[in-house]
Amino acid sequence: VKSSIGLIGLAVMGQNLALNIARKGYKVSVFNRTAQKTEEFVKNRVKGEEIEPHYDIKDFVESLERPRKIILMVKAGKPVDDTISQLLPYLEPGDLIIDGGNSHYLDTERRFKDLTEKGFLFLGMGVSGGEYGALHGPSLMPGGSKKAYSLVEDILLKIAAKTEDGPCCTYVGERSAGHFVKMVHNGIEYAIMQSIAEIYHIMRDVLDLPTDEMSDIFKEWNSGELNSFLVEITYKILKRKDEETGKPMVDVILDRAEQKGTGKWTSQAALDLGIPTPSINLAVVERIISHFKEERTKLSKLYNKRRSALQKSEEFLKDLKDSLFFAMFMAFSQGMWLISEASKEFSYNVDLFEVLRIWKGGCIIRAKLIDTLRRYISDENAHLLESEEVISLLKERIGSLKNVLKVSIENEIPVPVLSSAYNYFMSLTEERLPANLIQAQRDFFGAHTFERVDKEGVFHINWEEGEIG
Ligand code: NBP
Question: What GO biological process terms does the UniProt entry carry, in alphabetical order (predicted)?
Answer without folding.
Answer: D-gluconate metabolic process; pentose-phosphate shunt
